[in-house]
Automatic annotation (TrEMBL):
<keyword id="KW-0325">Glycoprotein</keyword>
<feature type="domain" description="DUF642">
    <location>
        <begin position="195"/>
        <end position="361"/>
    </location>
</feature>
<dbReference type="InterPro" id="IPR008979">
    <property type="entry name" value="Galactose-bd-like_sf"/>
</dbReference>
<keyword id="KW-0134">Cell wall</keyword>
<feature type="domain" description="DUF642">
    <location>
        <begin position="29"/>
        <end position="184"/>
    </location>
</feature>
<dbReference type="Pfam" id="PF04862">
    <property type="entry name" value="DUF642"/>
</dbReference>
<dbReference type="InterPro" id="IPR006946">
    <property type="entry name" value="DGR2-like_dom"/>
</dbReference>
<keyword id="KW-0964">Secreted</keyword>
<feature type="signal peptide">
    <location>
        <begin position="1"/>
        <end position="25"/>
    </location>
</feature>
<protein>
    <recommendedName>
        <fullName>DUF642 domain-containing protein</fullName>
    </recommendedName>
</protein>
<keyword id="KW-0732">Signal</keyword>
<dbReference type="InterPro" id="IPR052437">
    <property type="entry name" value="Pectin_Meth_Modulator"/>
</dbReference>
Amino acid sequence: MAESTSTRCLLLVVLVGAAAGVASGITEGLLPNGNFEQVPDASQLNGTRVTGLPSWEISGFVEYIQSGQNQQDGMVLAVPEGAHAVRLGNDASIRQLLTGLSRRAFYSVTFSAARTCAQAEQLNVSAGPESGILPIQTVYTSSGWDSYSYAFRARHTTAWLTVHNTGVDEDPACGPLVDAFAIKTLNPPHREKGNLLKNGDFEDGPYVAPDNPWGLLVPPMDEDDVSPLPGWMIMSDTKSVRYVDAAHHKVPHGSYAVELVAGSECALLQEARTVAGRAYKLSFSVGDAGNGCAQPLAVRVSAAYSSQVVTHQSQGTGGSRRGELEFAAIADATRVVFQSANHYMKPDGTLCGPVVDDVSLVTVRKPAARRRVFM
């Protein structure tokens, strides 16, 4: 009896300790000096080139850029957050040690980036052993700055967040600008009651800063990568989808949705458990983000061998309509796929597209067959 009581007490202590560890966690929002507003010492600056940054370690040709600064070609460099940003030259990188992580927990890192030279610039982002390539050659905003998201699963309580410019240009200083690094703990992908899909309303997702007016790009990923949008994958070579919030955009349901900004070159998808031969109904909202994308916005949705195009007649001011697709599963897993049916642009020439939200997948119950009564 005493041994049983002792065991229960020990188990309680372990559980309380584990809960406290999870609760302590990391603070959601900007990383220490995530917006580079802490100015380096004068001894660490040689013109714009910097040899040290508060809270960061640097390697290679790194520049400390002030908003409004001119390049040699006359291009004015703007900064999206505060007055300073960092430019990564040839093979340059910055890194910061993330602490207070919970093992096996999911995290998203968000930051802003702008291309300044080459057309095919890209960044290698890693946290621990996992890494991902973020293509930044496509510009989705009129300012030239886009915000990106990256996700990882912690293996330990600390991890090095590293951002590396893998490019090599004739000008060693040529490379992307980066700014506004933030972090958020993600909920593990899970299904809500009555929905076979996980995170069907997109309420679980990466950190969106309160002053971010253009949303977050969720870049393409390998199937084994951790998604910044729990439950969902983005399949493409170089294109992204955009995660938008209700504070700055029109959202059909809840606080967040996904805008398909890359035409048919990018697909938003999720694999759901199904039973071969059984009937299912996929329901979803298609709308516009209220960002001036005033044209008929079409989404192509497919599952198993069934597909359908749903069009929302957008005035560019918001609004949405419901769409449905019924299909019969052909396997024990079915991929639900959303793609923009066309490429769309706003009057300023920036990319836009239909918004997808409030997605649910349910089993269709067929009515029972009538019994014939013989007299």
